[in-house]
Amino acid sequence: MFVEYVPVSEIIPRALTIAGSDSGGGAGIQADLKTFTALKVFGMSAITSVTAQNTDSVLGISDLSPEFVGLQIDAVVNDLGADAVKIGMLSNRDIIETVAEKILEYDLKNIVLDPVMVTSSGDQLLKSDAQETLIKELLSHATVLTPNIPEAEVISCLKISSVEDMKTAAEKIRTLGPKNVLLKGGHLDKSTNAVDILYDGNDFFEFKALRVDTQNTHGTGCTYSAAICAGLAKGFSVIEAVKEAKDYVTFAIQNSFDIGKGNGPLNHFWNID
What we know:
The protein has eight helices and nine strands. By secondary structure, the chain is α/β, with parallel strands linked by helices.
């Protein structure tokens, strides 16, 4: 029987992650690619840094050259293309500037920017002198910016201790350029719900889930932003993409792995039989 050939690009959405590698497999590039696979998106990568990392700490970081980061992006986009892009760990100014240049060069769309600054174990991933460059060079390109509360406090220069504070910070952050700000409320310890606030410039949308009593949260931010990227790659609206991602991450935490001496990883394949 004759089967007509259909290009892969017409069958499966394509998502590119630009981020650091986590040798422990729970965060970074590894988490992103697992998430893309679980959500039925073809994943591609441009690695910015290699970390010697586990559930407990980061033992070392080795940044790739900005030129090689750019070359990886060239290789992917020129051949495979990308329906959406997730940007994670960019540890220095030169890499940030290179990624910004490539976004403009290829007119990349559907960009989810996770402004990674520290790990869940408290290790610094973004050099302090690069924070201003990240804000200046990349925020204006973001379709969705996904800061947690500590990151939002740095970007907005505001103290956040309530949902109302989150809304105020989201409004201020959006003036810096992102089309949508998704401020994650996981660090608000007093609430029984994990509440995230999405602000699109006109309206606020709340995404709630019961807080899971577990220390196995390593890679939550990476996974969440990658899941949003997957949704955008599939043609979802921002609200649809965030809703799917919130549900996916919540169940991944509920079914997380109790391995390692620190914050264990999520179960990225909870939805795969």
